[in-house]
Specification:
Strand order of the largest sheet: 1-2-3
Structural class: mainly alpha
Helix content: 55-70%
Order of helices and strands: EEHHEHH
Number of strands: 3
Largest sheet: 3 strands, antiparallel
Length: 158
């Protein structure tokens, strides 16, 4: 099956963005959902891979760390989401915008993967009636987008 790459490297170093309206709508919805969850409760268990403990064996030190840098961590995640939402309708991205996309795509995958308890050994053989099938399909799609974006960005380092 032939498919059109969603991200390609342009002649001037820009990243060409070729997403259908449905894809843009999905990404907009996912970014808004993640932003809401991060803003409401960054300590939510499904966000643990975005904000892992700095001192897993010392809850007091970890609480101090989160008090000192927690807002910076949340702000960085939100800035990446802002960039994706702001540039969703563009036909190309600057390398800096593409890096923010990479961060946001990774964050979306991490949260969804945590929710679905994705492991390296997990089979993605989607079966009719599997209640996780829609989310697993989105996880696979986000992984595919991330892979393409990494490839497009890597062309700038050759």
């Amino acid at each position: 099956m032939l498919y059109r790459k969603q991200f390609t490297r342009g002649r001037h170093g820009e990243i060409k963005l070729r997403l259908r309206t449905e894809e843009r709508d999905l990404l907009e919805m996912l970014c808004a959902e993640l932003r809401q969850r991060i803003d409401e409760d960054p300590a939510d268990d499904e966000l643990r891979r975005l904000f892992p403990p700095a001192h897993a064996d010392d809850p007091e030190a970890d609480a101090e760390y989160r008090r000192m840098v927690g807002n910076q961590l949340v702000g960085g995640r939100n800035r990446a989401l802002d960039t994706v939402e702001r540039t969703l309708t563009q036909s190309s991205l600057s390398p800096e915008e593409a890096e923010s996309w990479l961060t946001a795509l990774n964050d979306l995958r991490l949260v969804l993967g945590t929710r679905l308890d994705v492991t390296e050994e997990m089979s993605f053989d989607l079966r009719t009636g599997d209640p996780r099938a829609p989310e697993l399909a989105v996880y696979g799609y986000l992984s595919w987008l991330q892979e393409q974006l990494v490839e497009a960005l890597a062309l700038g380092f050759r």
